[in-house]
Amino acid sequence: MGIWECGHVIPQYNDHAANERTYLAWVRTGISIIAFGFVLERFTLFLHTVSESFGGKMSQAVSHGGREAGLAMVLAGLAALVLATWRFAATSRKISSQQPVAYDGRAVLVLGGVVIALALALVYFVVRPMMAG
User: Fold this and answer.
1) Which of 15, 80, 90, 127 makes the best surface tag, with the fewest CB within 10 Å?
2) What is the distance between the alpha carbons of residues 99 and 94, in angstroms, rounded to a whole number?
3) Residues sharing a CB contact under 8 Å with residue 80, sequence separation 6 or more, in sequence order
4) Please, what sign has the CA dihedral across residues 127, 49, 62, 131?
5) Please, what is the Cα angle at 68 between 63 and 70, to 5 degrees?
6) Whole-angstrom distance, CA of residue 50 vs CA of residue 100
7) How many angstroms separate the CA atoms of 62 and 26, rounded?
8) Helix (H) or strand (E) holding 33
C-alpha cells in the first residue's frame, strides 16, 4: 500500500525514508565489521598453520593477538549496530517533532576513529610476522 492510498499521508515521509536508508546502511556496515572480525580470528589459525608448515620458524612471530583483534572487530560492529539503532530512533523522533535541531556528528566520528584504529592494528598484526620471518 502506497503513502497516498486510503487518503493518509505520512508527514515528512521523505525525511523518514532517508533516515531508514541511513539506518540500514549502518546495519550493513555493522554486520560487515562483525564478519570481518570473525574472518580475522580464523586468519590467525591460518597463520599458525602456515607457520607450522615452515617448521615453526615463524611460530614466535605469529601473534596470538588475532583472536583479540577479531573480538575487538566484533565488538566494534556491535557498537555500530547499537549506535545506529539509537540514532535511528532519535532522528525519527526529531523528524516527527518538526522542531529545528542542530546536527551533531560526534558519535559517527568516534566510531570511525575506532574502526580506523582497529584497521591499523590489523595491518600491524598481518605485517609483523612477515617482517620477523
Assistant:
1) 127
2) 7
3) 26, 29, 30, 33, 111
4) negative
5) 105
6) 58
7) 33
8) helix 13-53
| pLDDT, tens digit, 9 for 90 and up, residues 94-118 | 999 988 888 888 877 887 887 788 7
Whole-angstrom distance, CA of residue 73 vs CA of residue 43: 13
What is the reported pTM?
0.70
Spacing of C-alpha 53 from chain mean position: 34
Closest CA to 73 of 47, 44, 102: 44
Q: Calculate the CA 5 to chain-centre distance.
A: 38
> For residue 59, what pLDDT is reported?
53
C-alpha cell at 14: 521523505
66: nearest Cα among 35, 30, 37, 34: 37
Is there a contact between 133 and 58 (Cβ–Cβ < 8 Å)? yes
CA distances from 31 to 25, 64, 104, 106 (A): 10, 24, 24, 21
